[in-house]
Amino acid sequence: MTYSFEQARESVLREVGGLGASEQALTSDSAGRVLAEDIFADRDYPPFARSARDGFAVRAADLPGELRVIGEVRAGEVFEGAIGTGEAVEIMTGAPMPAGADAVVMIEHTRRSDDRLVIERSLDPGDNFNPRGAEARRGDRVLTAGVPLGFAEIAVLATVGRTCVSVHRMPRVAILPTGDEIVEAGTQPREFQIRNSNAWSLAAQTRRAGAIPEILPIARDEYESTRASIERGLAFDLLLLSGGVSAGKYDIVERVLADLGATFFFDRVLIQPGQPLVFGRARDTFFFGLPGNPASTMVTFELFARAAIDRLSGVLKPWLPLLRAKLNSEVRHKPGLTRFLPARLSDDGSTVQPETWQGSGDVAALARANAFLVADADRETWNAGDDIRVLIK
Ligand code: AMP
Ligand code: MG
Known about the structure:
By secondary structure, this protein is an alpha/beta fold. It contains seven helices and 30 strands. Strand 26 and strand 27 (351-354) form a beta hairpin. Helix 3 packs parallel to helix 6. The chain starts with a strand and ends with a strand.
């Protein structure tokens, strides 16, 4: 089955669901985990009408005018009295509004001598304070199961007093490099041998995606050894194979998987790098046969395997950060494939420059790049100044 880029992504998102197992985690340790329960406000937020400024709590109807300061309220205190006509209470950011006040005038907009306060501008009721419950009412859902926990979500959990939280189990991902020419990265290769970089990049990408990688020993391009390695990999939540899925005589990964009873959802995607990409399931484990060229492996992981890890992790809406930027120079390609070309996005994210590279094996060019240009399959030329899609690396 040959799919377009979009069809292949849809297929991954459609087929892969959550592992359905959750565990308790300390909120302080849960950054990057995926929330497995809805979180509700334990009280109104803010819990009281809260000044947003340092200044004076007043009655807006009294302004502009001269008021009498009858006291002060700091954050963490309550003002015991109430404000009447012509009165003001000095108030600090975060302090509760005194009874009777309906606005805060910023200190910069006042002149004070002793208890006399002159305000030359007017205010509307509600200015410069947050009413009780404006952010959330007690019982409102403030976080939804399926969101990855970033710093803001962690702040919400701490705010509502949840120091412990239910998160999805992290998927365990087997990484299986294949190839007779591949040797361990820590060894001195012979002239015609290649160090195993894919297992390392895939492990880094897997970790970044919030899963636990395990690198299996390199499988040789020979049926029995590949089969034994794949069977081992199928005991994990996801199996990522590198290499052995092209049309070569010794590309036997697909044959082994077929013999193991695999269902193949697709085995070719109209993208470059990464065209001979295989996605399927065997023995209840999803697998990707990623083409072995380092750029293909890295790009196809970001485009497809990451979405699968997200889904296994319980993420409701996997996200692919495709933005738009202006091209610095012309780009041409042969239509038919969606191409992902290493590129440099400017610091402000507004313009993008293709990186020179020697093709899918050029790892150094990928390291220099901070993004990929996305050349759509149905367009041939982009001129300098045209908008183009960009995938952040
Ligand atoms: P294959 O997909 O097996 O045909 O491999 C395509 C290209 O990727 C070949 O040039 C391989 O040497 C290279 N390659 C395959 N596996 C790896 C790996 N684990 N690390 C680095 N390069 C690899
Ligand atoms: Mg190979």
